[in-house]
Design a protein that fits this description.
single chain; 148 residues; Collagenase (Catalytic Domain); 4-stranded mixed beta sheet; 5 helices; 4 strands; 47% helix; 19% strand
């Protein structure tokens, strides 16, 4: 893999100390794990931007946490992550913002490499791979049941 470029569009991302470095490292680790070749660009945006992208590319008129746009021939691609959705999901799941954002970056890279989770049999392949990569990064299994 050649590299990861971050594009910060929403200023809220800049207020999170160290998040850009950690996201870049996480994306690189995920790309190495799945042998993804090419450049990856991660857009750190706001919810409005993700809502527009989600509407334009998936026909869903609402913000989402992460979108992936694979490059041609399975080489690299682009990922967009929404700040507000990420923050709300992290809070709801009692996770740190950083851990959840890193999970979304890893998740996005796996989509670039062709992994999917829409069907249960595909999720059984993708999710354990995410967990393995996140564990190497010191992040707990995001799919484990939350303690009651």
């Amino acid at each position: 893999m050649s590299g990861v470029t971050l594009v910060v569009e929403d200023a809220n991302w800049r207020r999170r100390r160290g998040i850009q470095t950690r996201l870049k490292q996480a994306a690189q680790a995920a790309a190495r794990a799945v042998k993804l070749k090419g450049e990856v660009t991660i857009l750190l945006a706001g919810d409005k931007r993700l809502a527009v992208l989600n509407r334009d590319f998936r026909g869903k008129d609402k913000p989402t946490n992460v979108l992936s746009f694979p490059g041609s021939g399975g080489i690299g691609g682009d990922i967009a992550i929404a700040y507000g959705v990420t923050q709300a999901e992290a809070k709801a799941a009692a996770k740190t913002f950083a851990d959840h954002a890193i999970h979304l970056a890893v998740h996005g890279v796996l989509h670039l490499a062709g992994y999917d989770h829409e069907r249960p049999k595909d999720a059984k392949v993708m999710e354990p791979l995410e967990v393995k990569i996140l564990k190497r990064l010191g992040i707990a299994d995001p799919y484990a049941a939350m303690p009651q």
